[in-house]
Design brief:
Blueprint: H1 2-9, H2 13-28, H3 39-54, E1 58-63, H4 73-92, E2 101-109, E3 112-120, E4 127-128, E5 131-132, H5 143-153, E6 157-163, E7 166-174
Helix pairs in contact: 1-2, 3-4, 4-5
């Protein structure tokens, strides 16, 4: 969206058309495997997990999103998109002979929306003090902070764990 807005602000309509055509082509290649009950979450999960599957990452996904949410679809997709993106990045850093997996669970637990994303990793603990940090450089690595801000704004809870071979993030948001 930011790319489209930037081209439009510069009056570069041909670039917008070309970009949208490339996106449409990419979307045609996405398998619609996961149906959560939320169209926005379906779109983000299916696009990201299709990429994971193409990279030989074993996927286990169970996701059901209730119709009534206190969190916006945009915020929900920022959380899920960043968590899955981070998991894919971690799996990509693993060797070809290492087993790569990604597990996503989304559902209701104790009257809260519960999101869990777990992935294989060969990275050591990524903490500075009490906070997990990204290893990305440049204009990257803002996802963890965006997730934290959304969870805080919605009075939710977040827990990250890095154990040998596994990284997991759990998010709980009030319904």
């Amino acid at each position: 969206m930011q790319k489209i807005k930037a081209h439009l602000a510069l009056g570069q309509f041909q670039e917008v058309t070309e970009y949208l055509n490339r996106l449409e082509q990419d979307l045609d290649e996405i398998d619609i495997t996961y149906r959560t009950g939320n169209v926005s979450v379906d779109a983000i999960l299916n696009s990201k997990l299709t990429v994971a599957s193409d990279k030989d990452i074993e996927i286990n996904c169970k996701a059901k999103v209730p119709k009534e949410l206190s969190v916006s679809d945009v915020d929900l997709c920022v959380i899920i998109g960043n968590l899955v993106d981070n998991s894919l990045e971690s799996c990509k850093k693993m060797g070809d002979d290492e087993k790569k997996f990604l597990r996503v669970y989304i559902g209701v637990f104790k009257k809260q929306l519960y999101i869990s994303v777990m992935n294989s990793t060969n990275e050591e603990e990524r903490k500075q003090g009490h906070e997990f940090v990204s290893r990305k450089w440049g204009n990257h690595g803002h996802g963890l902070k965006r997730i934290d801000n959304i969870v805080e704004k919605n009075q939710g809870f977040i827990n990250r764990k890095n154990e040998p071979g596994v990284f997991v993030t759990e998010v709980m948001l009030p319904l």
